[in-house]
Amino acid sequence: MTAKIDDWLLEILACPKSKGPLRLDEEAGELVCDESGLAYPIRDGIPVLLVDEARAVE
C-alpha cells in the first residue's frame, strides 16, 4: 500500500498527542510521529489523526 500526501499538507500537519512533526511512511501508508511513537493511518488519501486510531511503533 503506497500513500501520497502533498508536501505542503505534510508541513502543516502535527501529531495530535505530542504536537510534533509527522513524517510520511509511504510503504506502510502512515504518518509517523517519532516524538510520541505513534503511526497514524492514511485511508483513501486522508490522514486519520486520531490517537485512538494510531498504532504504537517501535
Short description:
It is built from 1 helix and 5 strands, in the order αβββββ.
What's the topology here?
Elements: H1 7-12, E1 23-25, E2 30-33, E3 38-43, E4 46-47, E5 55-56
Antiparallel strand pairs: 1-2, 2-3, 3-4, 3-5
Descriptive account of the structure:
By secondary structure, the chain is mostly beta strands. The chain has a single domain (7-56), classed as N-terminal domain of TfIIb (Single Sheet). It is built from 1 helix and 5 strands. Strands 1, 2, 3, 4 and 5 form a 5-stranded antiparallel sheet that branches. Strand 3 and strand 4 (46-47) form a beta hairpin. This is UPF0434 protein EKD16_04630.
Defining traits:
five-stranded antiparallel beta sheet, mainly beta, 5 strands, about 60 residues, N-terminal domain of TfIIb
Taken in chain order, the helices and strands follow as HEEEEE
CATH-scheme architecture: Single Sheet
Return the CATH topology.
N-terminal domain of TfIIb
Given as residue ranges, the uncertain stretches (5+ residues, pLDDT < 50) are none
